[in-house]
Specification:
One of its GO terms (molecular function) is methyltransferase activity. One of its GO terms (biological process) is methylation. This is Class I SAM-dependent methyltransferase. Helix content is about 30%, strand content about 35%. It has helices at about 10-15, 20-35, 50-55, 70-80, 120-130, 145-155, 210-220; strands at about 40-45, 60-65, 85-90, 100-105, 135-145, 155-160, 165-175, 180-190, 195-205, 220-230, 240-245. The longest helix has 15 residues, at about 120-130. The chain is an alpha/beta fold and about 250 residues long. It folds into 2 domains: about 10-145 and about 210-245, Rossmann fold, CATH 3.40.50; about 150-205, N-terminal domain of TfIIb, CATH 2.20.25. A hairpin with a 4-residue loop joins β7 (about 165-175) and β8.
């Protein structure tokens, strides 16, 4: 089932606990640290465009890619309100295509965890390394960790009830496959005052840091750092989220 269909219209409502501005400050800092002060930046798995808008406000020329038409509809509404010249493309990030290269690619909010096969992660990284990143360009992505799925999310049920809608989020983590399955039940308020029920089934996969290192190496990208999220400290065994910073080597 396609992810984020019924959830798209209330996604921002239930994600308002995420400090996007702080996350954006961190991402901008990483970009500037390696000389990406301006120019084209691609966001894979851009969702409703919150981070895309933050980076556009910082002066970057943004492209956003997501496979959910419903999420992109929300992003386009934000674009209309902000007036930013953002290009949104409805594509599967496993097979994304651009007309040229960009200075950086970002993929955050655990979008890469939705890629369930190592070969597909490798394909994304390889495509960036050989086709769509400028020489010296950055690829920055985050990941929920094995620790987070195993110790925090796995077998947990999370529920929230608001006037505009409610959700029940049930998690099931399999340590052998490293797949976290979650069933999402939504009750979305209609103009009539009645609530519409939507059900979605999502899967995310944890990747060991060793696996990520191997995939980055195979792709042709250079691994710069794997940070404990929102710091410049190396990832720890109990890191819940990590940021992976890679670079396309300069042309020889």
């Amino acid at each position: 089932m396609e992810a984020y269909t019924g959830f798209a219209e209330v996604y921002d409502l239930f994600m308002d606990n995420i400090p996007y501005e702080e996350w954006g400050t961190y991402v901008k800092g990483l970009l500037k640290e390696y000389g990406v002060d301006e120019g084209l930046v691609l966001e894979l798995g851009c969702g409703t465009g919150t981070m895309t808008e933050i980076l556009a406000s910082a002066g970057y020329d943004m492209i956003g890619i997501d496979q959910s038409e419903e999420m992109l509809e929300e992003a386009l509404e934000k674009k209309q309100e902000s007036g930013h010249e953002i290009l949104y493309l409805c594509q599967d990030m496993r097979e994304f295509e651009l007309y040229g290269t960009v200075r950086a690619i970002i993929c955050i909010c655990d979008s890469m965890n939705y890629i369930l096969e190592e070969e597909e992660v490798l394909g994304i990284l390889t495509s960036a390394a050989h086709n769509y990143l400028d020489y010296g360009g950055l690829f920055i992505f985050d990941l929920n960790t094995e620790y987070k799925y195993r110790e925090i999310l796995g077998e947990q049920t999370i529920a929230e009830n608001r006037e505009e809608g409610s959700f029940i989020w049930e998690n099931y983590y399999d340590e052998e496959s490293m797949i976290n399955e979650y069933d999402l039940t939504l009750f979305v308020k209609e103009p009539s005052g009645l609530y519409r029920k939507e059900e979605e089934n999502h899967f995310q996969r944890a990747y060991s840091l060793e696996t990520i290192r191997e995939l980055v190496k195979k792709s042709g990208l250079k691994l710069l750092h794997i940070y404990d999220a929102f710091t410049h400290e190396p990832a720890r065994e109990d890191s819940e989220r990590v940021y992976v910073i890679c670079q396309r080597p300069e042309e020889k």
